[in-house]
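Researcher: We're teaching a course module on how sequence relates to structure. For the next exercise, students receive a sequence and then see the predicted structure as tokens, so they can try to spot secondary structure elements on their own. Here is the exercise chain.
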Amino acid sequence: MANEITVPALRGLALARADSRCVVSAYLNLDPQQFATAPARASAITSLLDEARREVEGGEHEHEELVHLRGDVERIAGYLQNADFAGARAMSVFACAKLDLFEALALPHAVENTVIIDYAPFIAPLVEIGPPGQWCVALVNRRSTRILRGSAHNLAEVVAFGDEVHGQHSQGGRSQARYERSVERDVDEHLRRTARVLLTHYRRRHFESLLLAAPVELRQRLIDALHPYVRDRMRACLDLDIENTSVEQVREAAAERIGEIETARTSERLERLRGELGASGRAVAGSEGVLQALNERRVEALLYEPGLKLEGAMCALCSLLQTTSGVCPVDETPLIEREDMLEEALQSAVGQSAELIAVDGPDLGPLGGIAALLRF
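Model: And here is the predicted structure for the students to work with:
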């Protein structure tokens, strides 16, 4: 499935902000269970564009801005009516003539048809899906290597190769010992080649985490051969038949292990949050403290309940966020009241390269549904 969300694209959208509500964000659902045929997709596109035009005409815009918005919607229409949706379960399109912005991204998961016109691109659905290439899975035995990359839910095989490794024989004596050493040198060279290929893939496009599937007797030899950049990203081992496991079976095994790893990571962050709150000043909880930390660009990790409703206000000039309305303390302009401060918080966190952790369950409830670990 296509996933065109990249870290630079996500960060660029998070940093794009206008001084008025003139940024159009459109999400088109292409779930094949509902929109498998061309007429069904055409109907969905028409419905989305009709909604976008109603949003434009129903808003309060000055004439010049209204002209720009109409043009943005028609540009989105032209794109969607001629786009190749191969492999996509949804599309997101962002347009703003004032910011010279036009960005279209294919998404691997279905989303609700949505049109939002606001000061900045609406990126919460992109944050929840995340960029591809975050995970790498390497399946390695004595002579064969397969490497898959992608997101937790969308791994694809990107390379497979084998090396000639001599088979065993049973002549006995010194001849057999020399032959076995030769075989092991072949194996070591195969492992070194695998390590080089993994490093090349990492340098081309960084992956955050590595899962390794290899026979138990080879694992440490392979780990020792890995470059430190790659070795530092190893998270766990998988028990799989290297050569005969299908890509779908690899996906299933990896998804289960990734889920365990991400659950453990969230638990670790929550445990750290509990320890840091009130002790070292390296954590804050509640909307007021979190927004202040975001304003100061101190957030290392933002923990939040998906769908959390937060009210507050923001400055259209300097992007300052706070829980109450009034005048911006930085530039003395009136703050704009907002009903969805979680979106503003996510945009700010992405813009400062903070880790984003969606926490399902009751852990953040007593903390107002939002908290942050701080860099300093």
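Model: If you want an answer key for the exercise: The longest helix spans residues 173-204. The two ends are 39 Å apart (CA to CA).
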